[in-house]
Amino acid sequence: MIPLVQPTSSGLLQALEDLDKGIVSHTNWLKMLHRALICDDEKADEKDIQPNAHCNCNFGQWYYSGKHPELDEMEIFAEIGRQHQAMHDNAREILLKSDREEPIVFEDYDSFISLAIDFKLEIRKLQQQIIDQVCVVDHLTGAWNRQSMTSRLTQEYERVVRSGNSCSICMLDIDHFKQVNDTHGHAGGDQVLKGIIDRCVKELRAYDSIFRYGGEEFLLCLPDINPAAAHPLIERLRITIEESPFELNNGNSVKVTASFGIAHITPEKTLEDVIVEADHALLYAKSQGRNCICTWNT
Ligand SMILES: Nc1nc2c(ncn2[C@@H]2O[C@H](COP(=O)(O)OP(=O)(O)OP(=O)(O)O)[C@@H](O)[C@H]2O)c(=O)[nH]1
After folding, report:
1. Is there a smaller number of Cβ atoms within 10 Å at the N or the C end of the chain?
2. Which residues form the domain of 57?
3. Number of separate domains in the chain
4. Domain GGDEF: where (predicted)?
């Protein structure tokens, strides 16, 4: 199953922009390099002849800055770094040959230009991966978004039907959240939403997933858990939310509670039925005074 949450995407969106700048600056760099090689009155940039030219260009400075931890863990990002260095190393060799007035054979040129093309294609591939990731994640909380929920839950439903394994879903809704916004502002409310996800990550299992279902409502998918075991797991989460105050950036501390509705996936029900059941169970929990769990029994 997919993990609980993904890192929030503001860093990734910034990376998309920075990668675009990398493409633009290297397109300009290629133009200047060709000029230096072709036009008699143009000289190569001294920086391009240095052994560490790949660290000194704008993209290189950004690449080695360590300011994008989300990318540093991606294999494709490491590959881009290798290609970028190889491209600069090749350019340096060509420029030095030109300086020494040695012939630049077509193999030298072809290998250099292939590296330059591959570098650009690899950056475009990374950008596509980032876009795919950003599109399935809720930007505020890092939970999976509603668009990704149906396909993920369908996979889980099919697994239950195929293998007979159990799976529960749980609706979580923060109690009186409007009051949090009214008292602490929308920014304070946003911090509480993020804090709820932190508490879910702490209490749920690594293979559970959290989807942002609506404003202050989340759907938890709990695979391989029998109906009897789902309740104690969610009870731990309920208590953690109730007992750990949320520290806001403005120095205030807020206490909130949440209500929960649990339903179980079974082959004879549709996925839509199970979501409706969890929703009904949640409404019942609200009607019972909130800060409690209600399980739909069929
Ligand atoms: N800060 C913040 N508020 C949100 C967001 N999305 C929805 N809300 C607010 O969530 C509140 C939900 O209010 P209600 O549906 O009345 O529910 P409630 O106050 O939690 O009351 P109960 O659910 O009945 O306990 C509204 O005030 C919305 O403006 C968001 O992304 N950020």
Report:
1. C
2. 10-135
3. 2
4. 165-298
